[in-house]
């Protein structure tokens, strides 16, 4: 195959775009004419400059726009242009600057404190550009062998970087994939568990299946349960309390499961969380797995946000007992410098995922090169056929920042400057760390869930810290006449 430099040779003049007669396909017939190298370079530079300027001026915009619903729809034409105007790209970019940016919430602003962060990095953004430029669809191994194999390599790299057990990695008989979001990961895991259970007890008993979570679990799980056909009143959201730092109690879980068994129902699935959305509570994985195992229940760990903290070995203890889980997922796009979207999911027994989500090989998806080989066809690991080449971005991010680099970034946030606020509420153990640092003590691996009864715990202190930082920001804004300073 021609190397890119040859392939995007200047002999191609974008005939398709400018209406001239198509270039004669003589010298390099293998080269597509969809990409005009000169136009691409010019527009590419415009976009890179645009993004660089956007970041440079981020602090000039209010983080949240003061607009009312319909503000943009009222100014844009109701129909797409039938022909492009002259310099359509430049004029569209100007509209992005003048019409669209002023109506955006600036998630990358250092003063954006809502939700969990959507982390981005130079390499993450450029990785996205590479993915879009190369534009392959790796649904089977044969559909893009290197994309599939890079994904296998990178999920093992990432799993090792996060100190996950070998049994979840390809290297240990498990395996992982890169999906868009945690909502997808949780649904895929649940569907695998459901079909495994129904194969044992018979499909007709789907109405007997019961799933478990805590009252802090992300709504993604309830949604997944609905999609997977679990009855609405068979989703047990077990009550948590402040004294337990809002962690799911193994005793309560055991009681709930036993009550369901006694009622003739079938416990199916537990969604445990490391870093809940409300308070970043951490469920005690090991003890919950012991309870779940006694009822033949699949355990999934949703570590969408806080999972990134596991690059720091000193936080590995928050997932103690993780060897017993069936599946695990985290969003690298929340706190691991991989721009949207990138959710990594690992399963201990890929065959169960494939049994639920695999499709009969259609004739057009068969390929002689993979025939007879045990290859991974990632379309069988998720709901969709078309998939993105996310592995390329994740690989670049891990390669260019390194595992230690990622650890350093997490610790920076832990250090408790403005970034701590930007990162939202930190995981409970991280919050404990902030407290120790504030006390001027050396950071030590702390208890996963602190907070003795009746005494303010790390979350309280973090809120207090947040309040102080917000007050600081407000004072600063006031001092600068309301214009935020970067
Ligand atoms: C963000 C988050 C989710 C949802 O993640 P998506 O990738 O948006 O689906 C689920 N669980 C937790 C704990 C989260 O923080």
User: What is the count of β-strands?
Assistant: 7
Helicity range of the residues?
40-55%
CATH class of the largest domain: Alpha Beta
Unreliable stretches (pLDDT < 50, length at least 5) are 1-26, 414-459, 480-486
Which ligands are bound? pyridoxal-5'-phosphate
- Say which CATH homologous superfamily of the largest domain is assigned: Type I PLP-dependent aspartate aminotransferase-like (Major domain)
- What value does the Rg take, in angstroms? 25 Å
Strand content: 5-15%
Order of helices and strands: HHHHHHEHEHEHEHEEHEHHHHH
| Overall outline | globular
Could you name the CATH topology of the largest domain?
Answer: Aspartate Aminotransferase, domain 2
Provide the residue-averaged pLDDT. 83
Topology:
Blueprint: H1 4-7, H2 15-18, H3 37-56, H4 88-100, H5 122-134, H6 145-161, E1 175-179, H7 182-201, E2 209-214, H8 219-227, E3 235-238, H9 250-262, E4 266-273, H10 285-293, E5 298-302, E6 327-331, H11 332-335, E7 343-347, H12 350-357, H13 390-414, H14 418-422, H15 428-438, H16 458-479
Parallel strand pairs: 2-3, 2-4, 4-5, 5-6
Antiparallel strand pairs: 1-7, 6-7
The structure holds pyridoxal-5'-phosphate.
Pyridoxal-5'-phosphate is lined by residues 116, 181-183, 218, 220, 273, 275-277, 302, 304-305, 331, 343.
Region (Disordered): 411-466
Keywords: Decarboxylase, Lyase, Pyridoxal phosphate
Biased composition (Basic and acidic residues): 450-464
